[in-house]
């Protein structure tokens, strides 16, 4: 489960310039045959009532006391952010963090966001409730927003997501999907979920509406790929959540 942020009082960031591996342009005005925008749910349906989003009862001093250790090559060049505004996120993503109440990053978020935005691979280990979902979804979404949609995203033909998140259980996948939909709200980026034990036809129909970030369990993803219901050829971000649990359950390359 993710942990919300606190208050930082930071100003609104400047809109980021498109760059990277995408085809450029706006996700809401994409050129791959699929219309962006057109939210399927209202803000209240996605985020809940505003009074339910308050973080006033959370003691962030306890988060600040958590020690952080970073290892790897040239890690000294990465400066942890103290506020989400320091990451210079695109307006739409920053607004969604505000809607969630995520304004002050937790330790894992402070360090993971600048590292992933710099294009580095990352393995993060932190306790449940430390904010790992936000820590990997925010830089993934930000990078996609900056680069723009791919020129060939599959449209309403073969879905070709740019981001892939694997989770060991349908329950965890569902939790990640809920958070991903909050962060991607009103950005033009569409998040989908597939898992075993559910109707494959309905999941396939949802994918055919367009899929930019796919959250999946390994077994159902394998089935979908074998049936050519989804292609992974455009994946730029690959996230393994609870990777140790997946290995314990027998999921191997």
Describe, in plain words, how this protein is organized in 3D:
The chain is an alpha/beta fold and 253 residues long. It has a single domain (27-248), classed as 3-Layer(aba) Sandwich (Rossmann fold), CATH 3.40.50.300. 34% of the residues lie in helices and 6% in strands. It has helices spanning 43-47, 60-64, 91-100, 107-117, 132-147, 170-183, 200-208, 218-226, 243-248; strands spanning 163-166, 191-194, 213-216, 237-240. Strands 2-3-1-4 form a four-stranded parallel β-sheet. The longest helix has 16 residues, at 132-147. It is globular. Keywords: ATP-binding, Helicase, Hydrolase, Nucleotide-binding.
Provide a short characterization of the protein structure.
With 253 residues, the chain is α/β, with parallel strands linked by helices. It contains nine helices and four strands.
Secondary structure layout:
Layout: H1 43-47, H2 60-64, H3 91-100, H4 107-117, H5 132-147, E1 163-166, H6 170-183, E2 191-194, H7 200-208, E3 213-216, H8 218-226, E4 237-240, H9 243-248
Parallel strand pairs: 1-3, 1-4, 2-3
Helix pairs in contact: 4-5, 5-6
GO molecular function: ATP binding; hydrolase activity; nucleic acid binding; RNA helicase activity
GO cellular component, one term: cytosol
Motif (Q motif): 82-110
